[in-house]
Amino acid sequence: MNDSTLRLPAEWEPQAAVLIAWPHAGTDWADRLASVETTYAALSAAVTRFESLVIVVPDATVRVHAERLIREAGARLERIRFVELPYDDTWLRDSGPITLRDDAGRFQLTDFRFTGWGGKFGAEQDDALIAGLVDAGVFGQAAHRRIDWALEGGGIESDGSGTVLTTWRCLNQRHPEQSREDMNAILRDGLHASRILWLDYGYLEGDDTDAHIDTLARFAPGDRIVYQACDDASDPHFDELQRMGSELAALRTADGRPYALHPLPWARPIIDEGRRLAASYANYLIVNGAVLVPAYGDAADDEAARIIGEAHPGREVVQVPCRPLIWQNGSLHCITMQLPAGLVG
After folding, report:
1. Domain annotation for the chain: domains and CATH numbers
2. Contacts of 295 (CB under 8 A, 6+ apart)
3. Catalytic center residues
4. pLDDT digits (tens, 9 = 90+) for 307-321
5. What is the pTM of this model?
């Protein structure tokens, strides 16, 4: 295909479906499977109110079980497609396709190498997931480009117009031998980006992605950035997130204007088995006509939902219970990957 007009769409552009993988006893969710399945069922019900959902399952037994839970949660089953494939875990933001499209409506599934977040976890099956979905016919005639360079979808944010936002902490961990200039060139080529914006500050305790941007700061329509702030000076995150806020304030749009910033409230510390969990409100998902927002059972949940809705005007705001997810160090955005309109065959 002629790729001269390929670009990485913004998440708020029209979508065909959302892609997830169902948790099961062979994943790291095994010890708390019933709890996390409540989140997946609620997510399925929320997504199918607005668009289709593609669910990867390992076998027919898990499919039947998942279908029962989804039905009980009130999901629209006619909008759900199941695909049977092997996978190591369910973080499809990072193992799913990063989809580019051109002006003619043709697609390229960009398949970066997935290493289990820098070799922290086994990832051989997850790294083969995109090829498996292609072979299953999920993506119609879309082109498939494999790039042998580690990058996860949660590590990048696109404004749909050629600007990509990422974090140095994450990509330096993945590629310590490469300079920022080296990475700029690879990201520009692989994502057809015209600008790469970097954050040097920002992290969440309990996050093993090495500061994925989708836990910290998100582009929103109208040159907005929604970001996770911390207003508790006694919290160990305070200084780092204050510095990140200053970095965001210093960023400029492609035409030289500052971004409109929307700081999110800070949830109280959530401690589980002696460790703090990463409860980020920035880890929300945009779908057609709505924005799905993580809720943690915290007093800040409603204010976070209000601010995210304000940054995405004209969309319904739907809260999804995500406290079970952060036990495994991710949240709502991390377990999903949106598929642009026209992609799903």
Report:
1. 15-340 (3.75.10.10)
2. 301, 305, 319, 320, 321, 322, 323
3. 334
4. 999 999 999 999 999
5. 0.97
